[in-house]
Write a structure and sequence with these properties.
It is built from 14 helices and twelve strands. It is an alpha/beta fold.
């Protein structure tokens, strides 16, 4: 049989979907599972957006579009970025794709050359596709650790030590997946100051959770002097407007927009014409339902953090944004004799009926940071209460070593 490329054999994945498949199989077997594994809003896409898509279908707007996207959406995206970040993008700076995720690959391909050992710095723990695509595109992944003691931000001084003449791209994600952490303004200022000393480094600003900030302000690197031209601002419909399955994202950078357009032509041809018209309404239409979703996420965040901190052996910081919590379960693992967070996760799933993700699903475990798991609180209050209660009962029932005071 012909061989498979090493690139394909070693390609990483997004473990949320792997665990989701495990959950689905257990549920098909009749098992009762409360799932917190997938980062997907559990709300319907707002009605005005759905109606815009239906209207697009009825109007015959379901063929190919320009690879960069319809001008109406690129104008809407530019206006949205300008009003939410105080920028000055135009429609020509915007490229649309089938979700925000493709721009991770397009950005790495745009600024690194295969086989040149050029480096990309990315957050760890972080969205697993960062590292996967860095490797698949032939660049060198360089993790920078998010620290619990810093509210899950990295130390900007550590960034300075990671940059070399081979560094071509820095990936920033704030608010973050999986920790929910937000990079504070003072750290973003230092990051900008460091980058001015290294003009060869582009920045991929993954801002998909920008409208889901609860504590403190959302700060974009693009707001600091000299950062806009070298920053790729990436956002989309999935999180703010509950449009995960519509597959609609966009990126903005004046220099790279033509490059991204060619990559879209070479891969997707164009994003769904129907989804593009839905996104026009999402960006331009009334925001009552998205605002309600944000308020509900805030309520759930406060609920789940309070409940988790009442679980023996669990410590959970209050995240500033997104819809994830990243509790430290080091002591809980020791109490029940779990080897690590992944063993703990498997036991919760199979013995307690609670589906979460382990820290190793988001990169190598950060040294000296202990064991963590991720909950997505894109779930009902009832599910949150039930799931955390199951976890608490499981730990109490299986405790072999008492938690320290």
């Amino acid at each position: 049989m012909p061989s498979i490329s090493r690139r394909s054999s070693e390609l990483g994945t997004e473990n949320a979907f792997v665990v989701l498949a495990e959950v689905g199989e257990l549920q098909r077997q009749g098992k009762d599972i409360v799932s917190f594994c997938i980062g997907q809003p559990d709300f319907h896409t707002p009605k005005n957006i759905r109606e815009a898509a239906i209207q697009a279908i009825n109007d015959g707007k379901h063929g190919y579009t320009p690879s960069a996207g319809i001008v109406e959406l690129r104008e809407a995206a530019a206006n949205y970025l300008n009003r939410t970040r105080n920028l000055e993008f135009s429609a020509d700076d915007i490229v649309v794709a089938a979700g925000a995720k493709p721009f991770i690959m397009y950005s790495i391909l745009a600024v690194t050359d295969y086989g040149e050992n050029e480096e990309v710095i990315y957050p760890n723990p972080g969205f697993p596709i960062y590292e996967s695509q860095i490797t698949a595109c032939g660049a060198v992944p360089v993790p920078i650790h998010l620290r619990e003691s810093r509210g899950f931000s990295f130390d900007p001084e550590e960034l300075e030590s990671k940059i070399t003449p081979k560094t071509r791209l820095l990936i920033l994600n704030s608010p973050q997946n999986p920790t929910g952490g937000i990079i504070p303004r003072q750290d973003m200022q230092v990051i900008a100051d460091i980058l001015r000393r290294h003009p060869q480094v582009w920045v991929f600003a993954d801002e998909i959770y920008s409208q889901l900030c609860y504590d403190g302000e959302f700060v974009s690197l693009t707001g600091f002097p000299d950062m806009l031209e070298r920053s790729i601002v990436c956002d989309g419909g999935s999180k703010t407007w509950a449009m995960t399955g519509w597959r609609l994202g966009f990126a903005a950078n004046r220099t790279l927009a033509p490059i991204f357009t060619r990559w879209v032509t070479n891969t997707e041809s164009c994003a769904s014409h129907i989804s593009q018209w839905a996104a026009v309404e999402a960006l331009n239409g009334e925001q009552h339902e998205p605002n309600q979703m944000r308020d509900k996420f805030l309520e759930r965040r406060n609920l789940i953090v309070g409940l988790l901190n009442d679980v023996p052996g669990v410590q959970c910081q209050m995240p500033g944004g997104a819809f994830y919590v990243w509790p430290n379960v080091t002591e809980a693992c020791a109490m029940i004799g779990a080897a690590d967070s992944e063993d703990f996760r498997k036991r919760l799933l199979n013995e307690a009926g609670v589906a979460v993700l382990a820290d190793i699903h988001f990169g190598e475990r950060v040294p000296d940071e202990g064991q963590h798991i991720r909950f997505s609180y894109a779930a009902s209050n009832e599910a949150i209460r039930d799931g955390v209660a199951r976890m608490k009962r499981y730990i109490e029932k299986n405790t072999k070593v008492r938690a320290s005071a």
